[in-house]
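[job 4471] stage=fold_predict status=RUNNING
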Amino acid sequence: MPTDFSRRLFLGGSGALLAHGLLARSQSQPLPDGRGSVTGGGSVTPAAVSLVKGDDRRKNAHDALEAIDDQIRPALRQKKYVVIKPNNVSTVNPLAATNADTINGILDYLEPRFKGPVMIAEASAGETMEGFENFHYDRVAAERRAQHVSLVDLHQEAKYVTMPLIDFDIHPSPVRLAARLFDPDAFIICSAILKTHNTVVATLSVKNMVLGAPLHSAPKETPRWNDKRRYHTGLRQTHYNMFLTAQKMRPFWGATLIDGFEGMEGNGPASGTPVPSRVAIASTDYIAADRVGVEAMGIDPNWIGYLNFCGQFGLGQFDLDKIEVRGEKVASVRRKYQLHKDIERELLWMGPMTDLPPKLG
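[job 4471] inference complete, writing structure tokens
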């Protein structure tokens, strides 16, 4: 059975210290324009990413994972249970949420390969169990009893680790993250979607994990609180906080499956319109998977700050030339997604900061 971990596992440290640790372990890399060097990156091995296109969402998910079976199986056999982390940013809009057929495709892949229990676990922005019912995850669990599938609301589980973020004023701000997503006994499978976003341009694997981890109060709990809001503190702060959280979560990530059977463009991540891309992307390297996903959406990868930071500091492979794409060619599935109406303001994170204090000393 899954490990029983502490209800209040407290992991401290400051954002500055985390960044310092990354810098100390990194290597000096040349700047793109040749003006010097920037500390960051380190050596990241080439990554394998599968890219499948087809007219059956469930089969696409299965086939994408099967295409990287050689990458998954060595780690999977060492784990006691599997956690499937869906994307339920909305609990009422099916287009914004992981489809039950996608989860079934993941379970189809696992069935002959893993005999331990499987959890579908989420910390939705709304009421998690309501979303599970609306999107028919309860039916999946009922039909998959032989695979010991259970549904877990991470808010109700109420076990967390903590880490510091920065707030709008660049002051430390603690956040509570679901402890289940930091369990070394779990093989964690991210079940993401190709979607545009209203703050960070696009949301795929990393965004699903990072913003799915912060908790809010469980139903009927008082007083009410919501740590997801601690990420929405300004454009720069959001990208940086997502990067810090990804750095903390990265050692526990198993594999990711990005469902692009019907992606979302426009005013994502919850109110956009459908795009019939008909693809599935899988990898054990979440950064590489997201890079391929961004390419499939026709989005400039330089616009997505948190993914660039993750690539620069060695959390995964962000260099497309060092990613082995198995299956379809990226160019053959690329479809330019319409971005959020606020895209021009979203990109302000890239410019100079104009609100710094006057020079002292």
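[job 4471] summary: The two ends are 59 Å apart (CA to CA).
[job 4471] exit 0
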